[in-house]
Design goal:
With about 325 residues, this protein is of the alpha+beta class. Helix content is about 40%, strand content about 10%. β2, α8 and β3 form a beta-alpha-beta unit. The chain starts with a helix and ends in a 26-residue tail after the last strand. InterPro entries: Bact_OuterMem_StrucFunc (IPR050330), OMP_bac (IPR006664), OmpA-like (IPR006665), OmpA-like_sf (IPR036737). Keywords: Membrane, Transmembrane, Transmembrane helix.
Length: about 325
């Protein structure tokens, strides 16, 4: 048996090229007559002991196969290198698919948990105060918009592989968003009414003769009654502007309107002891009508002198007086007769 081990088992335990290592599962021995070398020591020993001559017959046939052991041998097909490659490729593909499905499942569970937390927080808030409830609703609106976009365009790859759970989250999100609305804001409270600057509108025909820029003799009384509310105030500029209708030359009308405005300014400066730095004089001529020039009444309205108070920080700086607020001024209109 030691000879068999060295001759057979040791030979099979070493890989031979593409032939893998083979481990015998069953071993058997078959005793058959074979011819030996003539005059070998074993034959001489047998002859000396038995006094029988050795068998000189030579066996030329093949040795018999161990037919009794063949049915007990395991049967399997051989494995080529290509089959080994495809086995490993299939194994790696299966592992990759399993990992991808695991990642998709984890992402879907995270999506369900996040949306569920947003829904739970939204339902816990009562709406008093409004800001936390409104922020929670806006967060749910963002979730709903994202889920709707995925429903139209398709969910990201990390949620796919048949495990996407976003569709069943859309109905509860839409129901939660639509079941509450913030109360309307309270109406604004008017804390301070700022009135427009005072504007006086004087009829030019009551102050001046036609085509003239000098004040009439009887215009003083009307000016006193009309300009009683116009006072010099630091930070306010008194703007005197003259206007005419479209009768005559436009350039002459503009010059006439400017001279009439200067005449009113000079009377206010001299009578009311108002510094000239409090005034600004402008002549617009026929460029700013307030009525149509196609009728006599409209042209009469357009022939006017307007006096306005306009806020200006560095205007009318009178020593000892501080700038006046606009809330101290009203708005009025006077049409002379």
């Amino acid at each position: 048996m030691p000879g068999k081990n060295s001759a057979v088992n040791d030979l099979l335990s070493v890989r031979q090229g593409e032939l893998p290592v083979m481990k015998p599962c069953v071993q058997g021995m078959c005793m058959v007559p074979v011819s030996g070398i003539a005059g070998n020591l074993w034959q001489q020993h047998i002859t000396a002991v038995t006094a029988l001559p050795p068998d000189a017959a030579v066996t030329t046939g093949p040795l018999p196969l161990p037919e009794l052991l063949l049915p007990a041998l395991p049967r399997r097909r051989g494995v080529s290198r290509r089959m080994v490659f495809w086995r490993y490729a299939g194994l790696l593909g299966g592992i990759f698919l399993a990992l991808a499905m695991l990642a998709s499942w984890m992402n879907n569970q995270r999506l369900i948990r996040n949306v569920g937390d947003h829904l739970a927080l939204y339902h816990q808030l009562t709406g008093k105060p409004v800001a936390p409830k409104l922020r929670a609703q806006q967060r749910l609106r963002a979730d709903g918009t994202l889920l709707d976009d995925w429903a139209r365009r398709g969910e990201p790859l990390c949620y796919r592989l048949g495990l996407y759970q976003g569709l069943r989250l859309v109905p509860p999100v839409e129901a939660a968003v639509s079941d509450w609305a913030p109360p309307p804001p309270p109406p604004p409270v008017i804390k301070k009414i700022i009135q427009c600057p005072k504007t006086l509108r004087l009829d030019s025909m009551s102050l001046f003769d036609s085509g003239k820029s000098a004040l009439k003799a009887g215009a003083t009384r009307m000016l006193v009654n009309s300009l009683v509310g116009i006072k010099a105030k630091p930070g306010w500029l008194i703007v005197v502007s003259g206007h005419t209708d479209n009768t005559g030359n436009p350039k002459l009308n503009q010059t006439l309107s400017l001279k009439r405005a200067e005449a009113v300014r000079n009377w206010m400066r001299d009578t009311g002891d108002v510094p000239e730095s409090c005034f600004a004089v402008q002549g617009y001529g026929e460029s700013r009508p307030i009525a149509t020039n196609d009728t006599p009444d409209g042209r009469a309205l357009n022939r006017r002198v307007e006096i306005s108070l306009v806020p200006q920080a560095n205007a009318c700086q009178i020593p000892g007086k501080t700038p006046a607020s606009s809330q101290d001024d009203g708005a009025s209109q006077h049409n002379g007769e």
